[in-house]
UniProtKB/TrEMBL annotation:
GO cellular component: nucleus
Matches recorded under CDD domains: SANT (cd00167)
Localization per record: Nucleus
Name the UniProt record assigns to this protein: Transcription factor
Coiled coil: none
Lineage: Eukaryota, Viridiplantae, Streptophyta, Embryophyta, Tracheophyta
GO molecular function, one term: sequence-specific DNA binding
InterPro entries: EOBI/EOBII-like_plant (IPR044676), Homeodomain-like_sf (IPR009057), Myb_dom (IPR017930), SANT/Myb (IPR001005)
Occurrences of domain Myb-like (ranges): 27-79, 80-130
Start and end residues of each HTH myb-type domain: 27-79, 80-134
Record's keyword terms, sorted: DNA-binding, Nucleus, Repeat, Transcription, Transcription regulation
Region feature (Disordered): 1-29, 207-230
Amino acid sequence: MDHHEDGNKVSRNYSQISDQDDQEELTGDLRRGPWTVDEDFTLINYIAHHGEGRWNSLARSAGLKRTGKSCRLRWLNYLRPDVRRGNITLEEQLLILELHSRWGNRWSKIAQHLPGRTDNEIKNYWRTRVQKHAKQLKCDVNSKQFKDTMRYLWMPRLVERIQAAAAAGGGVATAVGSSSTTTTTAYLFNNQNSTTTLDMTSGSSTITLPQQPNTFTPENSSAAASSDSFGTPVSDLTECYNNYPVVNNNQDYYPGNQISYGDHQSLTSPTGGYFSQGLDFMEQNSQWIDGGDVSDSLWNVDDMWFLQHQFNSNA
DNA sequence: AAGGGACGCAACCGCCTCCTA
DNA sequence: ATAGGAGGCGGTTGCGTCCCT
């Protein structure tokens, strides 16, 4: 549910505290609960003149009856001028899924690669959107089953949608806003009809999606694929896919790993994966096939046809 | 129209690590 | 070396809003 736009969020945030006296607790001399306009103004003003940090003394010096932690959180998650509001874009969703597959619940680390997004926001996104899908699939969000689902269906679907949006917009889609970093991520996505490079350049705030001929298929390659759920290197596919995230100015970022969304070979070959067991799990959760849940429009008949085809061809 | 469930998100909590004296 | 404070981080909660029945 994306019914909270920027303005709404702000107005709601303040409207809900119009009757703050009823809602806020006063614990000793410290205030808790939603922040008031005056408090926000005080905090912004103080930081503008004195800078941030040393939050406990900052809270005292600014005359805020809040804990240092509360001030820090309010500033970082809401008041900071570069906080980016609004819906999580497709590109950001893709990045979150990818980074979470590598780092798990390292929200702050993930947030570092989404300019303007806070760890809190990403955490909320994960809990409300991603975990919802895991729940619908009746599987654990950390299970291989769900991770494979994300990797082989959800993420390729996102890439397709990004492609479509880019094509509609002339081939270049605006991405994740300004950034002081120059992290660059390049994906090469191979789907049924085309191979696409997804080049995410946070620093320049653009995503380019040039169409390329299909250069690799499972049928013409004997390359081994990852035997693990995503998050592990995909061996021997580098030449064919060239689907590596490029590291710039961040040594933590994708240390040599490769990823391959829509990798058909990978889809058919994970050892011990649920894909080798057929479509049982999908069929048991028919709402995913029937479109019972189309909130994110990540599934369609083509996906199911594709999966069925893969299983049949490997039977 | 009303009530209940689902959702989204701001804020809090507790634990951990780091820094400094 | 160590103790205490500050800050960071992930998990959780509370509440307003929306939607469906």
